[in-house]
Amino acid sequence: MNGNKPLVDLMQNQLEQADLAHLDVVICPPFPYLGLFKSGVTLGAQNMSSFESGAHTGEISGLMLTEFACRYVIVGHSERRADNNESNDEVALKVAAALKIKLTPILCIGESDSVRESGKLFDFIAAQLDAVIKQIGITQFSKIVLAYEPIWAIGTGKTASPAQAQEVHQFIREHLAKQDKHVAANIQILYGGSVKGSNAKELFSQQDVDGGLIGGASLDPDDFLSICLAAKQ
């Protein structure tokens, strides 16, 4: 819940001038700003309802998003799970609703500091994944993007070390591979948690880290562009 109209213009201009060939760059602004981006920018939304339409005041349907040329939607972000009590099952329903209308879900999973310290990290991540697998089936994972976001590293300035990020990304891929090796090998798994221009290259160089879900750094177009270029390298 950040940004303004001048930032939209600044980011649009920055992206138009940059050489981003061979990169997938998706901008996910707050709902009111979706319609301000001009063509040439791939858009995603930060959330959507699991309902198609109806008496759900304040919610946004996936079909509404497609009318604004959205191709992606973030689902299950840790802040949505915390602030709006979104359960694993509710997140799974949103993934299914997005796929139904050919939106690509960016499915967020990740643990708090207390979960990591309890030694139940992998069980926690597996439960988040399994709820979605149960709802849509493993083969449908070929149509989604995963984002691992350690909650303790979001907006805190803390960042998982490249080794910590790789460990969890590798677990995610291996967990999916138990059911479908092809899906597991080809799915994009992004890292999200205080990614900056200064640490992006090392994070993205890890074998199972396929890119980033960028939060605070995306509010600075120069820093965001440096992260994009780190991914390109």
Write a structural description.
- Keywords: Cytoplasm, Gluconeogenesis, Glycolysis, Isomerase.
- This protein is 42% helix and 11% strand.
- With 233 residues, the chain is α/β, with parallel strands linked by helices.
- It has a 6-stranded parallel sheet.
- The longest helix has 16 residues, at 121-136.
- It is globular.
- The mean pLDDT is 96.
Shape descriptor: globular
Q: Which structural category fits the helices and strands?
A: alpha/beta
- The CATH first-level class comes to Alpha Beta
How are strands sequenced across the largest beta sheet? 1-2-3-4-5-6
Could you spell the SSE succession in H and E letters? Answer: HEEHEHHEHHEHHEHH
List key phrases describing it.
alpha/beta, Triosephosphate_isomerase_AS, isomerase, TrioseP_Isoase_bac/euk, cytoplasm
What's the structural blueprint in terms of helices and strands?
Layout: H1 5-17, E1 26-27, E2 42-45, H2 62-66, E3 70-75, H3 78-83, H4 88-100, E4 104-109, H5 113-118, H6 121-136, E5 145-148, H7 162-177, H8 181-186, E6 189-191, H9 200-204, H10 221-232
Parallel strand pairs: 1-2, 2-3, 3-4, 4-5, 5-6
Summarize the structure.
The protein is of the alpha/beta class and 233 residues long.
